[in-house]
């Protein structure tokens, strides 16, 4: 009986062990089934396959860690700053350029701290939040004021002009590339100062040359005087170019100090400009058609706005075919229709449209850049039959000055080609509308 009991217990124990092995093999089969389809080692014992799969996963993890380390080393040598935050805006990692741009010397790799604790930049924080909320890449520019614990050292730090490119990542993380644009701005300012100094130095010799040319002009008889007349024209062109450059530089440097604001009747101002340019228009049998609001006034510098319309209407006359009309349209719009300062409830929109050759498509993004001239070889994509595109001629400063004057008044200006006339279409939007009357149409 004792032996029988022992054998029975042994059989029960062996059966229980066999049942556990069957259950374990069944579990391992289910676990390894997704991996087994890729491994091609179905004939191996389950434990051996499990060890091999664990070894493979470990190797893949090591490879990923090595790739991640390589990417981090590459980003450390990148010319742009890069930082990455988690779903709670905690800084996970940043490269060397980002540490230098944002002065993140208090942060060490491996630390997880709120970005706003390390960098006092609400613009950057807002950019990250927008990127996470909208799940779309974002771009933003702002002036960054670095902060340090040492107040004395902080006074020596210069503000930086930054541009950031952000993009959403998995698990609500956000990556941000940072570009320090301050060296480029400093270089442009140095270039502008150099050109301004040169322009100042050129004014005196040019004036002297003109005085000599005027003296010779009164002493020479035809046909010899034609050479002096040509010299006078070229000297005057150089003087106007130097003056335009100095004026543009002054406006860009300190625009608000140069404005003498007063109430300006826009309709009367345009009429005055057209009367000045009318002899040029009559040579080509051009007419002007005005439509829109009468008796509208804005707060503006009258002489500066006069300069704007002289430049724009002169260009329209220059590029309009004979026997055509230059259209001027004005209307009052609300700020909901245009992005302008919150202080203004209304804005004045002015459209100047001619029937000329228009701007080349490739020129449109650059027409307000200084010294830019369109290439005659460039053609407009959708010109009517019989028309060819025009190059932007002249000194290349007129439209740049116009843009700066409009910006100084808190407005906007853009260049287009009108779909109906095919000609140039300049649209100006100005705030500070003071008066309005019912719409009237005139031609």
TL;DR?
This protein is α+β, with helices and mostly antiparallel strands and 443 residues long. Helix content is 48%, strand content 19%. The strands form 3 sheets. The chain has a 6-stranded antiparallel beta sheet. The protein has a 6-stranded mixed beta sheet with strand order 12-13-11-10-8-14, with helices on one face. Strands 7-9 form a two-stranded antiparallel sheet.
Describe the overall structure.
By secondary structure, the chain is an alpha+beta fold. It has 11 helices and 14 strands. It has helices at 2-39, 46-76, 96-102, 115-118, 122-134, 151-155, 182-219, 225-253, 266-283, 302-319, 398-408, and strands at 81-85, 90-94, 113-114, 138-144, 160-168, 174-180, 261-265, 287-293, 297-301, 325-334, 346-353, 412-417, 424-430, 439-441. Strands 3-2-1-6-5-4 form a 6-stranded antiparallel beta sheet. Strands 12-13-11-10-8-14 form a 6-stranded mixed beta sheet, with helices on one face. Strands 7-9 form a two-stranded antiparallel ribbon. Helix 1 packs parallel to helix 2 (46-76) and helix 7 runs antiparallel to helix 8 (225-253). The radius of gyration is 36 Å and the shape is elongated. Mean pLDDT is 80; it is low at 39-43, 337-344, 375-393 and 436-443.
Fill in the keyword field for this structure:
six-stranded antiparallel beta sheet, alpha+beta, 443 residues, six-stranded mixed beta sheet, 14 strands, 48% helix, single chain, 11 helices
Structural class: alpha+beta
Unreliable runs: 39-43, 337-344, 375-393, 436-443
The rounded Rg comes to 36 Å
Q: What is the 3D shape?
A: elongated
Q: Could you report the average pLDDT, rounded to the nearest whole number?
A: 80
Order of helices and strands: HHEEHEHHEHEEHHEHEEHEEHEEE
Strand content: 15-25%
Helix content: 40-55%
The strand line-up of the biggest sheet is 3-2-1-6-5-4
Query: How many H/I helices?
Result: 11
- Number of DSSP-assigned strands: 14
Distance between the termini: 128 Å
Main sheet makeup: 6 strands, antiparallel
């Amino acid at each position: 009986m004792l032996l029988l009991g022992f054998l029975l217990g042994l059989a029960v124990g062996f059966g229980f062990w066999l049942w556990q092995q069957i259950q374990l093999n069944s579990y391992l089969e289910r676990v390894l089934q997704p991996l087994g389809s890729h491994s091609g080692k179905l004939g191996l014992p389950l434990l051996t396959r499990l060890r091999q799969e664990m070894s493979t996963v470990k190797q893949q993890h090591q490879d990923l860690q090595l790739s991640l380390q390589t990417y981090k080393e590459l980003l450390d040598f990148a010319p742009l700053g890069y930082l990455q935050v988690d779903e709670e805006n905690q800084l996970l990692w940043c490269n060397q350029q980002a540490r230098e741009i944002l002065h993140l010397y208090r942060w060490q790799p491996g630390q997880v701290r709120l970005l706003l604790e390390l960098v006092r930049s609400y613009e950057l924080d807002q950019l990250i939040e927008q990127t996470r909320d909208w799940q779309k890449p974002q771009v933003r520019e702002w002036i960054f004021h670095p902060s340090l614990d040492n107040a004395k050292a902080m006074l020596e730090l210069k503000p930086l002009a930054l541009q950031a490119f952000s993009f959403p990542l998995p698990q609500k993380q956000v990556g941000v590339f940072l570009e320090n644009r301050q060296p480029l701005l400093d270089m442009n300012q140095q270039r502008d100062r150099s050109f301004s100094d040169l322009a100042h130095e050129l004014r005196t010799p040019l004036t002297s040359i003109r005085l000599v040319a005027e003296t010779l002009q009164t002493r020479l008889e035809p046909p010899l005087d034609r050479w002096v007349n040509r010299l006078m024209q070229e000297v005057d062109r150089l003087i106007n170019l130097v003056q335009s450059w100095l004026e543009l530089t002054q406006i860009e440097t300190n625009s608000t100090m140069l404005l003498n604001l007063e109430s300006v009747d826009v309709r009367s101002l345009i009429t005055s400009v057209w009367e000045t340019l009318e002899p040029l228009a009559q040579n080509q049998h051009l007419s002007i058609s005005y439509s829109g609001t009468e008796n509208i006034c804005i707060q503006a510098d009258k002489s500066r706005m006069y300069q704007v319309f002289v430049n724009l209407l002169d260009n329209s006359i220059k590029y309009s075919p004979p026997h055509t009309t230059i259209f001027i349209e004005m209307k009052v719009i609300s700020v909901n229709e245009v992005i302008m300062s919150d202080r203004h409830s209304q804005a004045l929109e002015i459209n100047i449209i001619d029937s000329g050759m228009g701007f080349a498509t490739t020129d449109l993004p650059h027409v307000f850049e200084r010294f830019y001239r369109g290439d005659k070889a460039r053609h407009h994509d959708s010109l009517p039959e019989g028309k060819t595109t025009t190059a932007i001629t002249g000194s290349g400063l007129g439209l740049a000055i116009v843009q700066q004057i409009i910006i100084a008044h808190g407005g906007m200006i853009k260049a287009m080609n009108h779909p109906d006339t095919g000609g140039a279409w300049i649209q100006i939007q100005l705030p500070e509308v003071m008066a309005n009357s019912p719409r009237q149409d005139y031609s």
